[in-house]
Every structure is written in structure tokens, then in C-alpha cells.
From TrEMBL:
The lineage of its organism: Bacteria, Bacillati, Bacillota, Clostridia, Christensenellales. PANTHER family: S-RIBOSYLHOMOCYSTEINE LYASE. Its cofactor is Fe cation. It comes from the Bacteria. Pfam families: LuxS. Belongs to the LuxS family. The keyword Disulfide bond does not apply. This is S-ribosylhomocysteine lyase. Its EC number is 4.4.1.21. Gene3D superfamilies: S-ribosylhomocysteinase (LuxS) (3.30.1360.80). It comes from Guopingia tenuis. GO terms for molecular function: iron ion binding; S-ribosylhomocysteine lyase activity. GO terms for biological process: quorum sensing. Involved in the synthesis of autoinducer 2 (AI-2) which is secreted by bacteria and is used to communicate both the cell density and the metabolic potential of the environment. The regulation of gene expression in response to changes in cell density is called quorum sensing. Catalyzes the transformation of S-ribosylhomocysteine (RHC) to homocysteine (HC) and 4,5-dihydroxy-2,3-pentadione (DPD).
Length: 154
């Protein structure tokens, strides 16, 4: 069986940041939002990752690129998230990611979709840790540009 694209990335070289994981049909781009260095022992707290998923998914779908958003969700390894846009420039994607990460850093209030009728694990959230993770990621991507989107070693 052939390795999928994400398993062909050298995770020994990967550091936090935003990367283009793959491009399909010329305009569907999967972004790797890498919050943590793989295999370094420091992973996203699962409850915080769940909260980030709720916050980011809500913000991106309700934001200016909502109609171009295909997917946002966590990586099983708890080192980051995948974001898929259709027909969005890299510059606009980076700008929108920064906007949402800052919004998450500053967020207070009720986590969107966190009621029992809305979520399959509604008690499993950690807003404070999610805010800290967003702040740390925001510092990493503050000056990220299109030239930084390639995986290390590519």
C-alpha cells in the first residue's frame, strides 16, 4: 500500500508553523497548522484541542472565507490541525488564520457548540489551555509568509 502524502513528510524536521500539506484539483488546498513539534513530548491537551476545533471551525465558517472553507479538524497525533480551503490564495489563508488565532487568544465566553445537544463530548473542553495554545501559535505565525509554507526539506 502506498504512503499517503502526510506520512511522506519528514516529521523529524517539522516545527510549528503553517504549511501546505497538499493541493487537489489546483484550487483545493490543505493547510497543516502545526502547533507542536512532532515527537518532542509536548502535545496538545486533548480537551484544549477539542476547544480549538470548536472555536476555529466556528470562526472560519462564520468569517469572510466561510463559503470557501471545506474542513477544519484536529490531527490524531495532537500536534496540530488541518484546514482546507477552496479557491483561496495563500496570502488570504495566512491572513485569515492569523485573524482567527488572535480571536481565539482573546476569546472569553461560552464555547460555540458546547451544549449537550450540540456536541458528542460536551464536557470535554479546556478554554484556558486552548487560549494559551492559540497565543503560542500566534507568536510563531506572526510574520509567516507564503515563502514559509513549504515543509522543511522540500
Amino acid at each position: 500500500m502506498q504512503k499517503i502524502a502526510s506520512f511522506q513528510v519528514d516529521h523529524n524536521l517539522l516545527t510549528p508553523g503553517i504549511y501546505v500539506s497538499r493541493v487537489d484539483f489546483s484550487d483545493i488546498v490543505t493547510y497543516d497548522l502545526r502547533f507542536k513539534t512532532p515527537n518532542a513530548g509536548d502535545y496538545l491537551d486533548p480537551a484544549a484541542a477539542h476547544t480549538i476545533e470548536h472555536l476555529f471551525a466556528t470562526a472560519v465558517r462564520c468569517g469572510p472565507l466561510g463559503a470557501s472553507t471545506v474542513y477544519f479538524g484536529p490531527m490524531g497525533c495532537l500536534t496540530g490541525f488541518y484546514l482546507i480551503f477552496k479557491g483561496v490564495s495563500h496570502a488570504d489563508a495566512i491572513r485569515e488564520i492569523r485573524r482567527i488565532v488572535q480571536w481565539m487568544t482573546d476569546f472569553s465566553g461560552t464555547i460555540p457548540g458546547s451544549e449537550k445537544k450540540e456536541c458528542g463530548n460536551y464536557r470535554f473542553h479546556n478554554l484556558e489551555q486552548a487560549r494559551r495554545e492559540a497565543a503560542a501559535f500566534g507568536a510563531v505565525i506572526q510574520n509567516w509568509t507564503e515563502s514559509d509554507l513549504l515543509y522543511p526539506g522540500d
